[in-house]
Amino acid sequence: MDALDLPQLPRFGPFGPAFDAGIEAELAVDTETARILDANPAACRLLGHAREALKAMQIFDLHPGQASALVVFTQAVMDRGAHWTRSLTPHHADGRPLRLEYAGIQVSSPRGRTLLITLHDLEARHRRDIDADADSFMREGIAEWQRVDRFFRDIERENRLILHAVGEGIYGVNSEGKTTFVNPAAEQILGWTA
Predict the structure, then answer these.
(1) Range of the domain at 99
(2) Distance CA 177, CA 46 (A)
(3) Is 22 strand, coil or helix?
């Protein structure tokens, strides 16, 4: 593939390629005006709004009735440099509340102090946790089955050694009356061969 065949990278917004191409939803918010400066595509999908629509909003527009909780979160980020909360419940464009975890950091931008917020979808995280637990269980299950198999093979080997060492004739019969094992002494007494 030569340089002419390479896909063109999109033009990135003011917060760069990590922001724009990030797998997690991210918002950049002006700390003075509460205006959403930018939203990455993951945030647009999560919140159900177009990028330009989000950039025309204040962060309060996504959180009706939660102004005080937003102020507390913002102040905690500004005081500590970083903070997270699960107490904020933004609304999707269709009006339904979303269960999210917010992680915020304060960054400097040409526009001044900016709050960079990562929005983690708790429902999606829960589904990923279930999938990861199931995957782990399956991987651990194979090892556990192998351990149990080795344990029973060891028991069977020890039992065979004991049966062969015993001088008396021993044989086993299952519930259907069929002989399941015969030691060498029993073979000799009964005239059977195993």
Answers:
(1) 10-121
(2) 67
(3) coil
